[in-house]
Design a protein that fits this description.
This protein is α+β, with helices and mostly antiparallel strands. Helices cover 34% and strands 18% of the residues.
């Protein structure tokens, strides 16, 4: 089965390189490409995912694109515990079919997703951040249980906590607070 390649960005710029403005329906060629590097900054190129793993990365943008890889492009499957065989880099990429990521699109991608269990908890936090509350609640309903609730809370807290800080409930607002409260209440048997 061929999986559809996808990329999520803010408009036509990537969160990884906001100086690069992608061209649509044309070959974009990386200025920096070192396929032997292991550090993404040194590797360069363009990252993309597949439809059954992209849910983990929806927090990184508001626009979803279809990805076509030119026949002469190089592609690297980057190791990823959070999305195995779902993080790729290439030196050439064609983007098409831009559409705003809505809660409905997030839900469709969730229904196709095949992520490791822990990745759903971070994805749930990311969905809250991006405003996709119905999909976040669906993950809560379908993926949280008594055996994994503590891991879910830990992963959620880790996601919403700024790097180098210790978790504080003040980091929570809106949908993130709503889902966090559901997690805490579930852990207390409520």
């Amino acid at each position: 089965m061929n999986k559809k390649n996808l990329k999520v960005m803010f408009g036509t710029t990537s969160g990884a390189n906001q100086e690069l403005e992608y061209k649509l329906n044309e070959v974009n060629v990386a200025n920096n490409w070192n396929p032997n590097a292991t550090d993404p900054k040194e590797m360069g190129g363009f990252n993309f995912s597949v439809e059954d793993k992209i849910l983990r990365w929806l927090v990184r943008g508001d626009t979803l694109y279809d990805v076509e890889i030119p026949k002469d492009a190089e592609v690297i499957d980057c190791p990823s515990e959070s999305a195995p065989h779902g993080v790729f880099r290439t030196n050439k990429i064609i983007l098409s079919n831009p559409r705003l990521v809505t809660d409905e699109i997030a839900m469709q991608l969730y229904e196709k997703s095949t992520l490791p269990e822990k990745s759903y908890f971070k994805a749930m936090a990311g969905l809250c951040v991006r405003g996709h509350i119905n999909t976040a609640k669906k993950i809560f309903e379908e993926k949280i249980n008594k055996e994994n609730i503590n891991i879910a809370i830990s992963e959620f807290e880790d996601f919403v906590t700024p790097q180098g800080e210790k978790f504080n409930k003040d980091f929570l607002s809106g949908y993130c607070k709503e889902i966090y409260d559901l997690l805490i209440n579930y852990s207390r048997g409520k």
